[in-house]
Amino acid sequence: MKTVVSVIGKDSVGIIAKVSAVCAECNANIVDITQSVLQDMFVMVMLTEISSLNCSFAEFSDKMKNIDGGNALDIRVMHEDIFNSMHRI
Amino acid sequence: MLNINDIMETISMISEENLDIRTITMGISLLDCADSDAKRSAEKVYDKITRLAGNLVKTGEDIEKQYGIPIINKRISVTPIALLAAAGGDPIIYAKALQKAADATGVNFIGGYSALVHKGFSAGDKALIQSIPEALSITENICSSVNIGSTKSGINMDAVKLMGEVVRETAEKTADRDCIGCAKLVVFCNAVEDNPFMAGAFHGIGEPDCVVHVGVSGPGVVQAALKKCPDGDLGALAEIIKRTAFKITRMGQLVGTEASKRLGVPFGIVDLSLAPTPAVGDSVAHILEEMGLETCGIHGTTAALALLNDAVKKGGVMASSSVGGLSGAFIPVTEDAGMINAARSGELLLEKLEAMTAVCSVGLDMIAIPGETPAEVISAIIADEAAIGMVNSKTTAVRVIPAIGKKAGEELNFGGLLGSGPIMNVHLNKSPKKFIDRAGRIPAPLQSLKN
Q1: Residues with Cβ < 8 Å from B413, sequence gap 6 or more?
Q2: What is the pTM of this model?
Q3: What is the CATH number of the domain that holds A35?
Q4: Domain count along chain A
Q5: Per-run averaged pLDDT (10 residues), chain B, 451 residues
Q6: Chain B: nearest CA to A62, how far in angstroms?
Q7: Using beta carbons and an 8 Å cutoff, which residues of A are at the interface with B?
Q8: Nearest to A85 among B65, B68, B253 (CB)
Q9: How many degrees, rounded to 5, is the angle at CA A43 between CA A38 and CA A45?
Q10: Residues B254, A81: C-beta atoms closer than 8 Å
């Protein structure tokens, strides 16, 4: 089971470090990652394998959303099926 | 492999264009709860609903979290209560039991305080209909609907006359709360059995014991997609709407199958609807304006809505294994920012709304009318709307709110999804009383010689 972690917001030091720290902490394996900075907006999409999470999906998702105290970054954790069903026939 | 553009498109649909799943509605049959002792029957109703739907809200929230898509409402539809009330007893007992079940399960609404009287009244129907004003005034989360006509049986004008009085009485009983009772009462022609949307949802007798339906939304997504095509012809617009409706519906199908799996209940249908909310960027009227109308309600509105409604269905049908409900674009006036503006400015009139209902998914929806409107005028509005549905073999409905103590031009405010809006003009100088008082039945229309 894979999930897409997306992070959009103002660029700052250590965003990827914080996101990957949560992945490691919850035992989520990073499968793919793409990132760019458009002007000063940070945009990252990460695909993670979460079959062997050591916590519940909800906890993983909450931890991710709170990495910056829930302020400047828009962080979403969404199951990959939502994209597959929407964009693939 | 996932494409980053697709991912970003989905995220912006949710975060900027108000894409959401409007409702997960669990349909529950209460036929096995009927008992000649109404109290005993109401207890069984409460037990069955809380047993089957106890996890509904939690499941909805879990799915919301897993997929990152908002699911706004969790609701329940039940067998028309008139069928249970037929065994005897005061129908109000059932209204109280349903409210208790709504409180226990935490759902937003339970629909099905209903009667199907398109050809005539059977035992229990009249008592239930007469109890609607009280039932809606003493409960918060119960919705009521009455089917008064169909293409196959014609229009029961006795029921139409009665419903005019019931709508008025409901408004009077809830006058201290902006007449909100009437926002929970729908009068149908050709009602569907698997509708997940309130206030008209009930669980038809042809449905399984328990089933899960999903209603999608997303007017903002369609509007945003059309914005990217400022100069295309109408064929191109229809194509864009179809594509967008497909994507929205796929999301509904995914959520529906997942909810069905988690709840251990068969999946019913996806209702392919564009359901607006009063929020900015979530309006059906704004889609019509994006197509090129200066404001909704002017000449051309009906044609634009016909295109939109048809394209939504064409796009959605392929995206789901099972489509049903009311499927199409809703045009509830007080729940749609664009409609509210058009009605305030005087460009959108009741007559135009009636014409629009011939090509959209339902009917005259959430329209505030002057408090002095007599019952026979409300009945006549219902009869007109039912005639459109009956002749065109489509579902039509009337949900009007007589604003007791207020006049045309003033405003009603319900708050939340029900919104607010101006009180619209109706013809009050001349009366249809004699026509309505004749009562009886309008015969079913011919199905051939269609001109």
Answers
A1: B178, B420
A2: 0.92
A3: 3.30.70.260
A4: 1
A5: 83 87 95 93 96 95 92 95 90 96 96 95 93 96 96 96 97 94 96 93 94 92 92 94 93 94 95 88 94 96 96 92 89 94 94 95 92 96 96 95 92 86 94 96 90 74
A6: 9
A7: 4, 6, 8, 34, 43, 45, 47, 57-58, 61, 74, 76-87
A8: B253
A9: 145
A10: yes
